Automatic annotation (TrEMBL), chain A:
Entry keywords, A to Z: Cell membrane, Membrane, Transmembrane, Transmembrane helix, Transport
Family: Belongs to the binding-protein-dependent transport system permease family. CysTW subfamily.
Organism: Lentzea albida
Pfam families: BPD_transp_1
Membrane topology: Multi-pass membrane protein
Name of the molecule in the record: Putrescine transport system permease protein
TM annotation in the entry: 7-28, 63-86, 98-120, 126-148, 177-197, 203-221, 233-256
TrEMBL record, chain B:
Subcellular location: Cell membrane
Residue stretches spanning the membrane: 12-31, 70-92, 101-120, 152-173, 194-219, 250-270
GO BP terms in the entry: transmembrane transport
The protein, known as: Spermidine/putrescine transport system permease protein
Length: 268, 279
């Protein structure tokens, strides 16, 4: 097709504008000399300076990162296994899909209060990191299964059969054929799980204990008292910048590797 | 056959155990609380059992809140579809070797805190905010800005849940065989007819998955309505939250949570077997 999709291009550009406008505004406001987010009155670095001195923010950021990482690892591993379990039809598969769709369809607030009631009733489990991890894996798992399963079910079984015919053991076939095919979906699922945990306010807000406040909950508590602090805006700006930089490095590195692989292939 | 059953269940077992302990058991606890008389300081259900909490929850006074919640969730899902589809389609079809980078560019804004993003909107929609100023140039500004309106809440929810729509849609668009579009043009279909007869059915699994992933979190969210809306924008989620945090009426909050669950189960049953390919 040689019709140029310029209408689509304009729409996509507008959607990107919609996605980035608030972030750009946050970045500008983080250099504001007053506390206001809506009126820019001058340039200053004071919020970054205050952020650097704030140990509470860093403690909760560290906890949030650890939690998101642990939750992503656990839910990716057991979620990927489950996605493979659902690959072929077997009696009871429909029941499993209903169970797995529950975390997707039960509203967060219901899950939050349910977990609060559960952990408090157990009493033996103090609220805090453990409770947060259990809950975060529970609500991330299904997302991993959805993403990985969509790839697994679209996969050609004949590829693995061919590997087996060529003498590969089940393990070798899995490692050299199946895994590379599903790897992008597993990575996407892991990123999804990380993001879900990292950004969760609702469920976490019911489960944080003393000394285990995640960053979103810390910000929420602060924000509902006296509005969002410019320090948090500065931190958000730093986080987005860091992610963007990592992404750019990743893309540059990947294209460099592709080009090198290409030149090696030409030599051979 | 039995071996296959055994293998599948062995792979699913860790997930089953985790969800059994940390999803099903808590939901059972909520049902228990919902029939309790009141809750004590240590949050134990107090006998005798009663349905008083359900009577209070089904009071007509709560009906508008329930309706508003569904309206917000529906409008958010629709808005996410309208914004997310062009994006997913563009990346899958024209992204080329920048696909991953473009997809990541969609996700970058979501690495800042959810709350910070909502506050950014709060600042932008404020009476003296940028949106109101720009609208003022063409005479469309409002006194006090656009905060505390239904539109502000739906906008905030749409912004917050857009990635949940874009990712499954992108997966569906990427799997979609683009040659079908060419074939449809060659066979004399126009753009509109091609979209509804070829593209949409082809990416339907992504549309359904994305809608489900947006609809439910949007219905349960109480942070966005609380921060961008006012008293008139309170949702079922925010009422439940009030019972657990402020009001300390756990049985009432639990009863409302159970009612919301019943609704969810109803939707699942309606969806029935059609949902098989969604999850």
């Amino acid at each position: 097709m040689n019709r140029r999709p310029w209408v689509l291009g304009v729409v996509v550009a507008l959607v990107f504008l919609f996605l980035y406008a608030p972030i750009a505004w946050l970045a500008i406001a983080s250099f504001n000399s007053s506390r206001s987010l809506s009126r820019i009155s001058g340039f200053s670095l004071q919020w970054y300076a205050e952020l650097a001195d704030d140990t509470r923010v860093f403690a909760s950021l560290q906890l949030t990162l650890q939690l998101a990482l642990a939750s992503a690892v656990i839910s990716t591993v057991i979620g990927t296994l489950a996605a493979f379990g659902l690959r072929r039809a077997f009696p009871g598969r429909a029941l499993w899909t209903v169970l797995l769709s529950l975390p997707l369809v039960v509203p967060e607030v219901v899950m939050g209060v349910a977990m609060l009631g559960f952990f408090v009733k157990l009493a033996g489990v103090p609220l805090g990191f453990g409770a947060l991890l259990c809950a975060h894996v529970a609500f991330s798992l299904s997302f991993v299964v959805v993403v990985v399963r969509s790839r697994v079910s679209g996969m050609d079984v004949r590829m693995e059969e061919a590997a087996a015919d060529l003498g590969a053991s089940p393990f070798v076939a899995f490692r050299t054929v199946t895994l590379p095919l599903v790897a992008p979906a597993v990575a996407a699922g892991a990123a999804f799980a990380f993001l879900l945990s990292f950004d969760d306010v609702v469920i976490s807000s019911y489960l944080t204990g003393v000394g285990s406040t995640t960053l979103p909950v810390f910000v929420y508590a602060q924000a509902s008292k006296r509005g969002i602090s410019p320090e948090v805006v500065a931190l958000s700006t730093l986080m987005v910048t860091a992610t963007a930089l990592l992404l750019i490095i990743g893309v540059v590195f990947a294209s460099w590797r592709a080009r090198r692989a290409g030149s090696v292939a030409r030599l051979a | 056959m039995f071996r296959r059953w055994l293998k599948a269940n062995a792979l699913l077992a860790p997930t089953g155990v985790w969800l059994g302990f940390f999803l099903i058991a808590p939901l059972v606890v909520v049902v228990e609380f919902s029939f309790a008389t009141r809750h004590t300081g240590v949050a134990r259900a107090v006998l005798p059992w009663t349905v008083q909490a359900y009577r209070t929850a089904l009071d007509p006074a709560f009906l508008p809140i329930f309706g508003r919640t569904l309206l917000y969730a529906g409008a958010t899902t629709l808005a996410c579809l309208l914004l997310g589809f062009p994006l997913a389609w563009f990346i899958a079809r024209y992204g080329g070797r920048y696909r991953t980078a473009l997809l990541a560019a969609v996700l970058i804004p979501f690495w800042s805190s959810y709350l910070a993003r909502i506050y950014a909107w709060k600042a932008l929609l404020d009476g003296e905010g940028l949106v109101n100023t720009v609208f003022g140039w063409v005479g469309l500004d409002r006194d006090g800005g656009f905060l505390l309106t239904d539109g502000a809440v739906v906008l905030g929810l749409t912004y917050g849940f857009l990635p949940f729509m874009v990712l499954p849609l992108y997966v569906a668009c990427e799997r979609f065989d683009m040659r079908l579009v060419e074939a449809s043009y060659d066979l004399g279909h126009g753009r509109v007819s091609t979209f509804f007869r070829v593209v949409l059915p082809g990416v339907m699994s992504g549309v359904l998955a994305g809608s489900l992933l947006v609809l439910v979190p949007a219905a349960g969210d109480f942070v966005t309505p609380k921060l961008l809306g006012g008293v008139d924008q309170s949702t079922f989620g925010s009422v439940i939250d009030d019972q657990f945090r402020g009001g300390n009426n756990w049985p009432l909050g639990s009863a409302m949570a159970v009612l919301l669950l019943v609704l969810v189960v109803f939707v699942l049953v309606l969806r029935g077997r059609r949902g098989e390919d969604v999850l």
